[in-house]
Amino acid sequence: MADLFAKIPAVKAYYQTRLASDNQNEVLEKYKAKLYACFFTRSGLPKLDRAGAREVVNEFKRIAATPKDEIEMMLYYVETAVDLTARFGDIDENFYIAAENMFEKACVIVRQTKGMGWGFYDALWQSYQQYFDVVL
User: Fold this and answer.
1) Is 108 exposed, middle or buried (0-12, 13-18, 19+ CB in 10 A)?
2) Which of 46, 80, 95, 125 is disulfide-compatible with 91, CB 3.0–4.6 A?
3) How confident is residue 8, by pLDDT bands cut at 50, 70 and 90?
């Protein structure tokens, strides 16, 4: 197990999110940075590596400690797509379809938490409503 932890970054990240609560945010932020790099170059210009961005999200989903973390990563994808559009104007239809699909997947996860303990679904639903009350 120690060899896997040392040699395979995905295994290390998986256990970091589950065994050390203080590392969960660190791992999430690392993956957010990887995702951001799929949308923007270091100089801030658009990069648009959709396949890479989707892979970062899928990789993170495999190691995420909670559905909340998965949702946060998927919404960050959408947020970054919106940021890119706001800065550089309209992109192509496939770009928007990919962002819409990612948003829908996040919504499906929120729905799947219904009935889970400790008010988990209620907290996610409240956050969802809070964002849309502001937008609409």
Assistant:
1) exposed
2) 95
3) low
Per-residue model confidence as pLDDT tens digits over 61-78:
998 888 888 999 999 999
Domain boundaries of the chain, sorted by first residue = 26-135
Q: Is the dihedral of CA 17, 79, 133, 105 positive or negative?
A: negative
Give 19-31 pLDDT, tens digit per residue. Answer: 555 666 888 999 9
DSSP state of 20: -
Nearest CA to 76 out of 64, 93, 88 is that of 64
For residue 34, is pLDDT > 80?
yes
> CA triplet 12, 81, 106: central angle to 5 degrees?
60
Which of left, alpha, beta for 89 (phi over 0: left; psi -120 to 50: alpha)?
left
104-118 residue pLDDT tens:
999 898 888 888 888
Long-range pairs, 14-17, Cβ under 8 A, ≥24 = 14/62, 14/63, 17/63, 17/64, 17/65, 17/69
Query: Which residue, 20, 16, 107, is CA-closest to 70?
Result: 107
